[in-house]
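Hi all, long-time lurker, first post. I run a small reading group and we've been trying to get comfortable going from sequence to structure in the token notation. Rather than ask abstract questions, I figured I'd post a concrete chain and ask someone more experienced to write out its structure so we can walk through it together at our next meeting. Sequence below, copied exactly:
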Amino acid sequence: MTYLTKPKFHHPSLPKNELGYTHRDYEGTVSTLCAGCGHDSITGAIIAACFELSIEPHRVAKISGIGCSSKTPTYFLGNSHGFNSVHGRMPSVLTGANLANRDLIYLGVSGDGDSASIGFGQFAHALRRAVNMVYIVENNGVYGLTKGQFSATADRGSKSKRGFVNTDNSIDLVAIALQLGASFVARSFSGDKQQLVPIIKAAIAHKGAAFIDVISPCVAFNNHAGSTKSFDFVREHNEAVNRLDYMSSRMPIEVTYEPGTVEVVEQHDGSKLTLRKLAADYEITDRTAALGFLQQHAAKGQIVTGLLYVEKDSEDLHAHLRTVDAPLNALNETELCPGQSALEAFNASLR
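-- Answer (accepted) --
Happy to help. Here is the structure in token form:
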């Protein structure tokens, strides 16, 4: 397989972030996905989020499984760490990497086939264990690499490009993430960059399991009349619960909205997430209410997008396991193997 490379030349007047990097420094190789694929829009949103946050690319580890979605890490952050795992196993590979080196920013990129079918169990355990990660599912409702069969997230009653009707109930990954205890849950649309970029930025700053389900139409097999994952359907049935702006804690926070229209959520690390409320009765810190809200609007045929839930005082797997502050892969042999007396003392504490 050959990959097209992008020119190394950068125009001297390109805007730079706080680190002196340009937008181009966060790109990867040229995409080989179908022209117009929603996944490429998600790639653009990830690039924009990392550029605006002034993240050093080498501090990011991007891990994926198998599928069209799992190809996309090739197209962003070409100078970061990367690992393409087997089908459905991205969460366990990412968990192991996170336990070994907690200092990296982990982006798990998956698809509806990768996470809602063969990897469903792995998806569940990564979220319930609060692995410190941004878990992005690029959700198009079909298996794009194998000619457009329905995936587990395809809505019941939706039609395939060939006219077949899906008779199976769908899996709502957002609802499952809420039930499993994910501390940051959001849904967005690949065609709404204004909403998606701040969500990704906030998820990166969040400590704990941050899950983002992104409806991403497949232009080859699932962008026709009768599909509930098409560009037209999502635009017509999108119910946005909030419009977000993310402001890093390194910058002064200036709020110019009218009183009563803004809710500021303070993240674990002190960063700020500002929400301009569109639904006056929606509370982003109520997990149970978020589940009910999803079900109510799903019954109306509406796709709820925005930040659906965030836990104010979230923790991650390292806090639960009480691991040391230093990355485990940086510890020496003496620190990892303290000797027989330490082992005997530990065993005695368990009796």
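A couple of things your group might point at:
The chain has one domain: 23-321.
The longest helix spans residues 38-52.
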